[in-house]
Amino acid sequence: MSGHQDGRPGTRWRRATRLLAAAAAMCTGSVVLTAALTTGPAAAGAAERAALAAPAVTSVTTGGAHTCAIPTDGGLWCWGSNYGGQLGDGTTTNRSTPARVGTATWASVDGGSGHTCAIRTDGTLWCWGSNFRGQLGDGSTTSRSAPVQVGTATTWARVSAGPAHTCAIRTDGTLWCWGFNRTSQLGVGTSPYVATTPLQVGTATTWASVSTGFAHTCAIRTDGTLWCWGLSSDGQLGLGTLGSQTTPAQVGTATTWSGVAAGYAHTCGVRSGALWCWGENGYGQLGVGGTYQTTPVQVGTGTTWSRVDASSDTSCASRTDGSLWCWGKNGSGQVGDGTTTHRSAPTRVGTETTWTGGLAVTDHGCGIRTGGGLWCWGDNSGGQLGDGTTVQRPTPAQVNLPG
């Protein structure tokens, strides 16, 4: 896989995730699809009416083989693979349609490979799912099938869940990480090997956003500078070297970074509207030709990129004109262009210019269009597309949360 031997830890992790997702039992629920996924005018009409009645979505995240979304009423819905309890519904049963997570109101959510973390509207942080490396932050390594609170703080603002570690930012601008630290991805040095509760990363109080990759982490400060740490096996830290970085190190000298997304072994970011990527490029996930890059390389010449997401070996980004573009690994149709051909340059997803909301991609992708419509595509082995099936889809199809 893109130059990696099967014995590499990342390959073993991704293979295990797929096997667990496929082995878990599927549970059938109710969901309404758009007319494109139904047959006959009666079914099409019913689907259109349901789409109009469905609540608008404000936030979406894609985990290893699961999806979670928050509609305008603040409820939280998850679906897909649930072997570790990552759906938060109190079971380990897969769901091929959205299932409500409790009755609380939520502000944001992020999914890791087998766990999920979310912030409630009261500023408290909650995590659930697999916890073998302490990634839930509750002081244990016990997996949880329902949300458990992380500490007692009520000032959490942002959270990012990686495969086996989690990082979050508080309203005071401090950054905290916990979970697996084998490659110093927590940013606190080489010790501890596993942290089961949040550890503060340095003393800075100017962190604005954070993104967790497989074994590295990147974050942006309020002054627009970009910092990365952890493993740099393929240059994914953007520091011009291979190896590891035990604490945050600044990427270049630019002060205009507005977004960053850490993938499996690559990273992409937006700077002054231009798109930059670096790290592993075996599937073309950097959006440029050639091999791995140890420093940021610009993707094309456009300066109208607004947001980017990267995970596994695929990248997606939207432009200010509302168009959506994806590239990289496409074995499950996660590029969304109707094929399973890997792409080494940004490939447009359809012709719509309404991709103005949230965006997330792993081996499947999901995005929010104008008006709050939620669309998903790609791998569906665990039911993560939310359409009631386990059939992968190489183009976006709408998924409606229960009204």
From TrEMBL:
GO terms for molecular function: guanyl-nucleotide exchange factor activity. Residues 383-403 are annotated as: Disordered. Residues 1-35 form the signal peptide. Pfam families: RCC1 (PF00415), RCC1_2 (PF13540). InterPro entries: Ran_GTPase-activating, RCC1/BLIP-II, Reg_chr_condens. One of its GO terms (cellular component) is cytoplasm. Gene3D superfamilies: Regulator of chromosome condensation 1/beta-lactamase-inhibitor protein II. Keywords: Signal. Residues 387-403 have a biased composition (Polar residues). This is Alpha-tubulin suppressor-like RCC1 family protein.
